[in-house]
Amino acid sequence: MKILILSDSHSHFENIYSIYNKENPDKVIFAGDYAKDGKELSFAVDREEDFYIVKGNCDFFDFHTKEIIEIELLNKKFLITHGHLFAVKKNYDIIQKESENKGYDIVIFGHTHRAYYEKLKDIHYFNPGAAINGEYGILLLEDEKIEFIHKKL
């Protein structure tokens, strides 16, 4: 399964549309800041059921999108959040503690506009960087194989 991971598009829809068409993913995770862009992309490609979207700190008037969602794909438990609720610009202590306590396998977040990947205590932490800058991520997920890739348009 190929999962496209996006965050922080900040109304640069053309970037995420180009990225989507370049990668042709099975699923899409949008980790906030202009969740509207993620929703518009899901409508444009007519695959709303394959999108997982959370809102971020810049989604002021979005009263319908959640700030945190949990999903399970191929027996892996995901936390998807923008990251602002976990103070990820300061450090990763809060999000790591929450992830360990809740038993997540994969944590997806944005907010910092910096690409990041680390595996700690069997938990994968991934920030794709900012789509406003053409940055994004790919997660290749198959049975026990988990591979994260940072990319740029």
Automatic annotation (TrEMBL):
Q: Which domain of life is it from?
A: Bacteria
SUPFAM superfamilies named among the record's database cross-references: Metallo-dependent phosphatases
Instruction: Give all residue intervals belonging to the Calcineurin-like phosphoesterase domain.
Output: 1-132
The protein's Enzyme Commission number: 3.1.4.-
Q: Does the keyword Metal-binding apply?
A: yes
Q: Which GO terms describe its molecular function?
A: hydrolase activity; metal ion binding
Q: Which cofactor does it need?
A: a divalent metal cation
Metal-binding keyword on record:
yes
Cite the InterPro entries for this sequence: Calcineurin-like_PHP_lpxH, Metallo-depent_PP-like, Phosphodiesterase_MJ0936/Vps29
What Pfam families does its record include? Metallophos_2
**Which family does the record assign?**
Belongs to the metallophosphoesterase superfamily. YfcE family.
Q: What is this protein called?
A: Phosphoesterase
Species this protein is from: Hypnocyclicus thermotrophus
